Amino acid sequence: MSEEQSKVISLAVIPGDGIGPEVTAEAVKVLNKVTAGGPARFDLTEYELGAEHWLATGETLPDKTLDALKGHDAILFGAVGVAPGDTSMPSGLIERELLLKLRFSLDHYVNLRPSKLYTGVDSPLANPGDVDFIVVREGTEGPYAGNGGVLREGTPQEIATEVSLNTAYGVERVVRDAFRRASQRPRRKLTLVHKHNVLVNAGRLWKRTVEKVAAEFPEVTHDYLHVDAATIFMVSDPSRFDVIVTDNLFGDIITDLAAAITGGIGLAASGNINMDRTYPSMFEPVHGSAPDIAGQQKADPTAAILSAALLLEHLGFDDEAARIQQAVAADLANRGGKRRTTAEVGDAIAAAVS
Amino acid sequence: MSEEQSKVISLAVIPGDGIGPEVTAEAVKVLNKVTAGGPARFDLTEYELGAEHWLATGETLPDKTLDALKGHDAILFGAVGVAPGDTSMPSGLIERELLLKLRFSLDHYVNLRPSKLYTGVDSPLANPGDVDFIVVREGTEGPYAGNGGVLREGTPQEIATEVSLNTAYGVERVVRDAFRRASQRPRRKLTLVHKHNVLVNAGRLWKRTVEKVAAEFPEVTHDYLHVDAATIFMVSDPSRFDVIVTDNLFGDIITDLAAAITGGIGLAASGNINMDRTYPSMFEPVHGSAPDIAGQQKADPTAAILSAALLLEHLGFDDEAARIQQAVAADLANRGGKRRTTAEVGDAIAAAVS
Ligand SMILES: CC(C)[C@H](C(=O)O)[C@@H](O)C(=O)O
Ligand SMILES: CC(C)[C@H](C(=O)O)[C@@H](O)C(=O)O
């Protein structure tokens, strides 16, 4: 296809801190390779944001930067944050004021996290079986709403609250998205994960919503697991899962566990998706910024590269997304114990793109 | 020791539903065996409570029964609840109105859950290592407080909230208990599990309390993990844990996972402990009532028997508790694939009690 016919995708890149810049560079490399001469061409704008930027400027996510980000077609995000225990910035500040602020401001209500155990990848499980599921984690409400407060802080009479906010609007749109994704997968199975026997108010809303939306998808079977039981199945029978839909906090917990049993968060991709396309969606590896290995070309860029595939899928380039996934699968199948630099892994995957 | 010198322990037994009666019978068998002719003698009172009792009478936990329970030295609890999906009773009702009501009314602020991978027991992990830790789960507040509500239920404008209540009083007493337990273990290590980067109000209280109480236990080292990261370590390096202290909901989740990696909830014991001894503590297997296998002598009574050991420990009979744990360990080491009835397992463990 000639340049003239290819669509220009305006892509914001937020490399962030630690290993973020290294892994996003490889994701960009693969994005360029898979679209070369094809139907899309990337126009990149890099944004300097993250803990280091805060330390230098005191800025987390200024309004004008947020506005500028809204003008792009999609966002590729690396990782942000300082090392655990580093006291140079208040703990959690950059996560809340940048990462979560982006998810909430850009209405990323579908936090999509696929878990697949690729051939050639070691699982900590003795008999993992055929693991291939996706978690559709709600991304804009629940215990992440930032609601709650403190009374009599620092005294023996202190009380601290955290309020989980769950709306019919918020739950229904993410449940419908999960059913839609389930209906497009071979097994067509959806599992709601919650804790409705204890969290009765939110639980009732989630359960009722799943029952209601299920009627629109008669081809999809659905079941329910308490979050505690879900963690058991995650290690005893993970192949039972196809599509999981769950709230923001439960989704946070079980997707890290899901990543662990499929080879670690070094391989786990995610999309923060606004399905209404009112704002750009954002794609990021599940791993953090790992400052201890930053700048040493030790980080595995696979999660970032798989996140780039999710980005292409979201923008409608299913074929290109599949080609990245196949290239990653081929690379993983032959990795063995080989030690390669971040760039070498990116090069190998880019080369494997058909 | 003669009968005259032995202390009489007034024990309430709540066998409950499903496999509850079968497994508690074996726990009682072992309790009687280990104390026979010894320093303690059990005076049992059985209470008919649970889902079946509710179906028959409409009662969950009447005030007069709760008062009667308060008069005992300890409570042995089996399991309650109907099968998942059984609609003969409202979902979660018996869990909340009986089990959680007992934990809250009797101020069981230490929900103690040991996780140990015994020799002879299969883990789903390929390389579990030497797993031996305890989780001290807060038992009387957090998201379990039953706080929250619903507005415009069943409409597109519905909002459902869940409020996690955390008090300095509640957090400090359980953190201190966890440090005390850590100080008595060989590794003397405590890990706080929370999600303070997102749940900032509660998280700050938990972190500050751990720092404060740590000063009283200079011999104990302590660290911190976000709950999502904790689930990763639970499958990638569970031997790193010694004592975990965490809130009610995170504790619920990670203890099921901990049970799964150490051989399943069929082996997981727990104590709902009131360390101030203002009310009796309650000991129960972590597993549920499993109505599908009830009355068939298929259930494994090991978790109930290990819970009985925790009961003895709480009452100060450390020697007797250790003898049960050794008998269980000996039995587990030689189980292999043997199929035995619930009573046969109980008999074998009772016989192995030295
Ligand atoms: C960094 C943190 C705020 C974030 C979350 O809790 O969502 C992370 O754990 C994730 O899963 O993307
Ligand atoms: C039955 C349920 C209310 C209970 C809990 O959530 O605490 C159970 O899962 C447990 O862990 O004992």
TrEMBL record, chains A, B:
Binding-site residues, Mg(2+): 228, 252, 256
Catalytic activity: (2R,3S)-3-isopropylmalate + NAD(+) = 4-methyl-2-oxopentanoate + CO2 + NADH
Keywords assigned by UniProt, alphabetized: Amino-acid biosynthesis, Branched-chain amino acid biosynthesis, Cytoplasm, Leucine biosynthesis, Magnesium, Manganese, Metal-binding, NAD, Oxidoreductase
GO MF annotations in UniProt: 3-isopropylmalate dehydrogenase activity; magnesium ion binding; NAD binding
Site (Important for catalysis): 144, 195
Gene3D superfamilies linked to this entry: Isopropylmalate Dehydrogenase (3.40.718.10)
Annotated compartments: Cytoplasm
SMART domains to which the protein is assigned, alphabetical: Iso_dh
InterPro entries for the chain: ICDH/IPMDH (IPR050501), IsoCit/isopropylmalate_DH_CS (IPR019818), IsoPropMal-DH-like_dom (IPR024084), LeuB_actb (IPR023698)
Binding site for substrate: 103, 113, 137, 228
Domain spans labelled Isopropylmalate dehydrogenase-like: 10-349
Pathway(s) it belongs to: Amino-acid biosynthesis; L-leucine biosynthesis; L-leucine from 3-methyl-2-oxobutanoate: step 3/4
GO CC, one annotated term: cytoplasm
E.C. no: 1.1.1.85
Family: Belongs to the isocitrate and isopropylmalate dehydrogenases family. LeuB type 2 subfamily.
Subunit structure: Homodimer.
Name this polypeptide is given: 3-isopropylmalate dehydrogenase
Source organism of the structure: Arthrobacter zhangbolii
Gene name, Swiss-Prot/TrEMBL: leuB
